[in-house]
């Protein structure tokens, strides 16, 4: 199962496996951002952001643009934004399903709890 395609796909998803990188990509899905804007939104140290941006650059997910002393980043492809939207939709569906299961569990616990309390009175 060491297919180069599967290896590359696994590496791609590893790249997405950090909350800061996901948030950066979400912000860049909206529009290009200056590094200072990213820092303000993320509330992390500049060195941490630099490290995460380097990972995203190496994966060719973002591209920098320098204008004087200001560096801005944008996505290399709108498909990245689409992937994040699909992931959000999947997570929403999973969480919604879990909430439904939780409601069912709470309702069934309430029914058996009510029956138990009336038997002991």
How much of the sequence is in beta strands? 5-15%
Number of strands: 3
How many structural domains?
2
By CATH, the superfamily of the largest domain comes out as Winged helix-like DNA-binding domain superfamily/Winged helix DNA-binding domain
Along the chain, the helix and strand elements come as HHEHHEEH
Q: What strand line-up does the widest sheet have?
A: 1-3-2
Mean pLDDT: 89
Q: Which sheet architecture does the biggest sheet show?
A: 3 strands, antiparallel
CATH architecture of the largest domain: Orthogonal Bundle
Q: Briefly note the CATH topology name of the largest domain.
A: Arc Repressor Mutant, subunit A
CATH class of the largest domain: Mainly Alpha
Distance between the termini: 63 Å
How many DSSP helices? 5
**CA-based shape:** extended
What Rg, in angstroms, do the CA atoms define?
22 Å
Short description:
This protein is mainly alpha-helical and 121 residues long.
Question: What secondary-structure arrangement, pairings included, does this model have?
Answer:
Layout: H1 4-15, H2 19-30, E1 33-34, H3 35-42, H4 46-58, E2 62-67, E3 70-75, H5 78-120
Helix pairs in contact: 2-5
Characterization of this structure:
With 121 residues, the chain is mainly α. The chain has two domains: 1-76, Orthogonal Bundle (Arc Repressor Mutant, subunit A); 78-116. The protein has helices spanning 4-15, 19-30, 35-42, 46-58, 78-120; strands at 33-34, 62-67, 70-75. Strands 1-3-2 form a three-stranded antiparallel sheet. Helix 2 packs across helix 5.
Question: Which descriptors apply to this entry?
Answer:
121 residues; extended; DNA-binding transcription factor activity; Arc Repressor Mutant, subunit A; 2 domains; DNA binding; Metal_resp_trans_reg
